């Protein structure tokens, strides 16, 4: 599939990075367009952090070239530095400063007017907390404060390094909504590293899955699901596995697995509705007890586990 954007902001061309005997990034070529929201996924050690550090200018490639906004870190660091921003997993602030004072402090580094503080606090829904001490903020509010600071200079590229790790589900969802809105309104190119599949699925236009320093696959979620084992998943609980053996023998069935501990069958099929109709008829005729029948589309979680079980170990 052709993933090259029309207006590339980040361009990797044959990039390799080694640390002694370890090749952390291996001949990667990648383009990310203006305003794109891209997820970098992969197991620990896949090369995500090294790739991000090279985008941030914290590390230089051993081979290949990297261009950001048409520039390179070697020659244009002063131009690039104010045009990038990042949000870390655990941002650190001075606890005794107020929220407004903290943003003003960072704004002074960019020589931004005080009026910009109010704008970014409104963007991240922290206006009501502007006079609160940072040490009294919740984890989610601290992450929103980090987002406000990252947006101060209206960056063209934003790096989001596991920005919602440790947050409860409700706060995490609220942070996603803010991130998606910021991406649409600011047209900043955003790169997300995360271990939450649902996060990447909700936020990102394109997903890149890395393994052993290479990009194993990339595309929109629908493209990836269609390419890697397309179909629907049927899950049901049955105590006697052999009672449903006949169901596995069908052109509609792509794959079948059974977990004895949970007594759960998992079948990947081309057409979930057709299989459910056949399953219902089979249960009535054979008087088989089946519980918890679920028919669903495949998710990014399914794709990631599928690749982790095969491609990641090949």
TrEMBL record:
<dbReference type="InterPro" id="IPR017871">
    <property type="entry name" value="ABC_transporter-like_CS"/>
</dbReference>
<keyword id="KW-0536">Nodulation</keyword>
<dbReference type="InterPro" id="IPR027417">
    <property type="entry name" value="P-loop_NTPase"/>
</dbReference>
<keyword id="KW-0547">Nucleotide-binding</keyword>
<comment type="similarity">
    <text>Belongs to the ABC transporter superfamily.</text>
</comment>
<dbReference type="InterPro" id="IPR003439">
    <property type="entry name" value="ABC_transporter-like_ATP-bd"/>
</dbReference>
<dbReference type="Pfam" id="PF00005">
    <property type="entry name" value="ABC_tran"/>
</dbReference>
<dbReference type="InterPro" id="IPR003593">
    <property type="entry name" value="AAA+_ATPase"/>
</dbReference>
<keyword id="KW-0813">Transport</keyword>
<dbReference type="InterPro" id="IPR050763">
    <property type="entry name" value="ABC_transporter_ATP-binding"/>
</dbReference>
<dbReference type="GO" id="GO:0016887">
    <property type="term" value="F:ATP hydrolysis activity"/>
</dbReference>
<keyword id="KW-0067">ATP-binding</keyword>
<feature type="domain" description="ABC transporter">
    <location>
        <begin position="10"/>
        <end position="237"/>
    </location>
</feature>
<keyword id="KW-1003">Cell membrane</keyword>
<protein>
    <submittedName>
        <fullName>ABC transporter ATP-binding protein</fullName>
    </submittedName>
</protein>
<dbReference type="GO" id="GO:0005524">
    <property type="term" value="F:ATP binding"/>
</dbReference>
<keyword id="KW-0472">Membrane</keyword>
């Amino acid at each position: 599939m052709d993933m090259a954007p029309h207006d590339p902001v980040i361009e990797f061309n044959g990039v390799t990075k080694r640390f002694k005997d370890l090749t952390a990034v291996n001949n990667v070529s990648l383009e990310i367009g203006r305003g794109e929201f891209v997820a970098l996924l992969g197991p620990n050690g896949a090369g995500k952090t090294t790739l991000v550090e090279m985008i941030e200018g914290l590390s230089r490639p051993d081979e290949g070239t990297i261009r950001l906004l048409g520039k390179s870190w070697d020659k244009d660091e002063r131009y690039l530095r104010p045009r990038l921003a990042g949000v870390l997993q655990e941002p650190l602030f001075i606890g005794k400063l107020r929220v407004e004072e903290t943003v003003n402090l960072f704004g002074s580094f960019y020589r931004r007017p005080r009026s910009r503080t109010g704008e970014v606090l409104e963007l991240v829904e922290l206006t009501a907390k502007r006079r609160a001490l940072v040490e009294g903020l919740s984890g989610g509010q601290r992450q929103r404060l980090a987002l406000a600071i990252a947006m101060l200079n209206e960056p063209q590229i934003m790096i989001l390094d596991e920005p919602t790790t440790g947050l409860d589900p409700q706060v995490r969802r609220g942070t996603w909504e803010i991130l998606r809105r910021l991406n649409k309104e600011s047209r900043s190119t955003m790169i997300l590293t995360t271990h939450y599949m649902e996060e990447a699925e909700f936020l990102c236009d394109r997903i890149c899955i890395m393994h052993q320093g290479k990009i194993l696959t990339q595309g929109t979620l629908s493209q990836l699901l269609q390419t890697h084992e397309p179909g629907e998943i049927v899950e049901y609980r049955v105590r006697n596995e052999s009672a449903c053996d006949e169901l596995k023998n069908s052109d509609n069935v792509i794959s079948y697995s059974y977990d004895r501990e949970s007594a759960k069958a998992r079948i990947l099929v081309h057409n979930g509705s057709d299989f459910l109709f056949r399953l219902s008829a089979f249960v009535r005729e054979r008087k088989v007890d089946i519980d918890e029948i679920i028919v669903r589309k495949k998710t990014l979680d399914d794709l990631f586990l599928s690749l982790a079980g095969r491609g990641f170990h090949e």
